[in-house]
Specification:
Layout lengths: L1 H18 L12 E10 H15 L9 E2 L3 E5 L3 E3 L3 H4 L3 E14 L13 E14 L7 E3 L3 H17 L5
Antiparallel strand pairs: 1-6, 2-3, 3-5, 4-5, 5-6, 6-7
Helix pairs in contact: 2-4
């Protein structure tokens, strides 16, 4: 009797461990990267997005830009890139990245809109879609690994260096 229970427990434990592997055990890693870029003026926001995201990092603008008075959202198309070493280590064979850059007017700034002096807070959000070994036919949401964070943080750093103080 004890031998059957032991065998059952071993099978159950093994099934649990193998079942938790999922997509290479990436469940602890975030799927969205988001950073505050700081304060900017409206014209600076567009200039920096063009210069850094589109020209330097070669992302293409998506067709769904939202340019409202109090909020701006610029989306990129998915951009193919080579997997980073830590992505390869978890079985990723293909990666596309997508960036959203947004700016929200700061409270008390609505009167400054007409003069072009409104102060906005800008954000960058990034995500990956990936293909894993043996599952190359389908894209699925991908993790933001340490190497991917470094890559997106480089973009954030470059953008923050180019924003001009609004004062």
């Amino acid at each position: 009797m004890h031998k059957r229970v032991f065998v059952f427990v071993v099978i159950l434990f093994t099934s649990f461990v193998l079942g938790c592997g999922g997509t290479s055990g990436t469940s602890k890693q975030s799927r969205i990267f988001k950073k505050n870029l700081g304060h900017c003026m409206r014209p600076d926001f567009f200039e920096v997005v063009d210069k850094i995201v589109f020209l330097k990092y070669r992302y293409l603008e998506g067709s769904n830009r939202r340019d409202m008075t109090t909020r701006i959202e610029i989306y990129t198309e998915w951009k193919s890139r080579s997997p980073f070493p830590d992505e390869i280590a978890i079985g990723i064979v293909a990666v596309d990245s997508k960036i959203t850059v947004s700016a929200k007017i700061n409270s008390g700034q609505t009167r400054s809109i007409t003069t072009g002096e409104a102060d906005y807070t800008a954000y960058l959000q990034a995500e990956n879609r990936v293909k894993y070994i043996g599952k190359e036919e389908n894209w699925e949401p991908g993790p933001i690994t340490k190497d991917a964070k470094r890559y997106f943080n480089d973009i954030v750093f470059d953008m923050m260096q180019d924003f001009k103080a609004p004062y």
